[in-house]
Design a protein that fits this description.
Layout (H helix, E strand, L loop, with lengths): L14 E12 L5 E17 L3 H7 L10 E6 L12 E4 L2 E10 L6 E9 L5
Antiparallel strand pairs: 1-2, 1-4, 2-3, 3-6, 4-5, 5-6
Length: 122
Amino acid sequence: MSFDALYTQPGLLRHQITIQEPSGTRDAAGQLNATWTPVLSTRASIESTSSSAFRFSFQGNALASNATDLVIVRYPGSDIVIKPGMQVVYGDTTYTVTAVDDVMRRHRKLALACIGIDVSSV
């Protein structure tokens, strides 16, 4: 079987994730209260950055160089824009998205370079 960068086996999308974007309001003192608003709930594949898919998608990308994990999702459509600075929540684990690759610019799957964060220390 040949390698097809646009194909993801459905069985690999076994992680239920939520992608969130930052939003904020100001309190009475003018301080920013950061909150996270859900943008998309979907199935995903979560892999280590040592995988061949990560090397294929982010070769030479400085923004992705510190990433700890690669999250693969199906392209969500043009109404939903996923960009660096958003976060991915999987169970008790939260990741910050550092880079986004629309694989081969074909709008079929997105590769998200992510850094795992410890939300208990934030």
